[in-house]
Amino acid sequence: MLYHLLYPLHTAYSFLNVFRYITFRVIYATLTALIISLVLGPWLIKKLSSNKISQPIRKNGPSSHLDKEGTPTMGGTLILFAVSFSALLWADLTNFYLWLALLVTFGFGLIGFIDDYIKLIKGNSRGLRWQYKFGSQVIIAMVVGILLYFHPQFSTQLTFPFFKNMAPDLGYFYILFAVFVIVGASNAVNLTDGLDGLAIGPVMIASATYLLFAYMAGHIKIANYLQIFYISGAGELSIFCGAILGAGMGFLWYNAYPAQIFMGDVGSLPLGGALGAIAIITKQEILLVLVGGVFVMETLSVIFQVLYFKLTKGKRIFRMAPLHHHFELKGWAEPKIIVRFWIVSIFLALFAISTLKLR
Ligand code: 57M
Question: What does pTM read for this prediction?
Fold first, then answer.
């Protein structure tokens, strides 16, 4: 909004020309979201606690989690507020991709909110029925895929790291691919959100990485130099990524071990969905497997665990899935698991960025 209000005044006040620059607006979108989540965090924690919106702990999980009983959850509401307020304040509101990212964020956020509401406030531990939860995610992702498919500028070609000449055109199958990426990323982040700061750390690392990708994709000279798709207007998504990064940092201040608040499905589902949508829009879909490698490992650990359990009629590969629980049961301290997963996430993100040159 500030871009529309203040940039036009640069003819009278030249210093307002700075609002033209995406780099400037990314920095201040990040700082705005950070300050909002830092300042409102204590108030929300108190509000959730007084309304007894706290996490029930399943008895069949690691015993160390029993101490977490009563931790306030649904902190994702704060993340969503900080992200949307900051993005709407600093981004170009006429940008198509910004509204696509907001559609996924709010759509998946509403699904997560309803799930949390049923579980935590209505007291039904099953939450939203998986058919409704999964079905509504698919519908929202389908709408995004269709809007992109019919967008005149958007390409349905798939880009691969390392092979710059390999870009098969998926045609309308791209819509299904987009659904797979967005819904998959959303549920992968959801599965990962099982230790203090374990999900928000890699989400921040991924949003910082896609902040770079979006800026480069929207900058014709850089895009041509790197031989990546030039997506006119994608640069505004780096402001959205900055808002996620800032909101994540502020949330992590309170979610860091020992957590004073959990994000809930209202946080994990939209954050994953937004990263999936940004990966699709910036045409760095396959790289999301690397950038979001921690989420992929956690999801694969569950898939392999369940398949092996069924195939061997009761045997397990891991002591418990997702992977973070396996290390807990091996005796690793929770902070050690969390920080090591962050280190892996940073390594994978740096390697993913390097692939833009290794092609
Ligand atoms: C999402 N939710 C956490 C919190 C967070 C198919 C199966 C793998 C599903 C999986 C599952 O239930 N996943 C649901 C993970 C939960 O966190 C809440 O959920 C929100 C995210 N959606 O924001 O509100 C618990 O995680 C802990 N936590 C923290 N700090 C945080 O910052 O400590 C969360 C955030 C919280 C808290 O204890 O209560 C979760 O783990 O449920 N199921 C599992 O992950 C279960 N695994 C399992 O059953 N494995 C089986 C099979 C199915 C693969 C096996 O290995 O044989 C484990 N999780 C739990 N209990 N809680 C084990 C049983």
Answer: 0.95
